[in-house]
Give the backbone structure.
Amino acid sequence: MADPKELKVTLVKSKHGRLKSHKACVSGLGLRKMHQTVTVKDTPENRGMINRISYLLSVEEA
């Protein structure tokens, strides 16, 4: 079985002043600071969080 693909996710807008659930998605993806980039597995759960806060993120395939 092939390994799941990975996504490089970068926080490009501040999480301050956002909805509580959106802040939870940011921390759920492992992001803490602006312009921090993390690599996450391409799973339906991570995709859902990315879609919900897409206006805060920059996403590219790794």
User: Anything to note?
Assistant: Helices lie at 20-28, 44-52. The longest helix spans residues 20-28. The chain has one domain: 6-61. The chain has two helices and three strands.
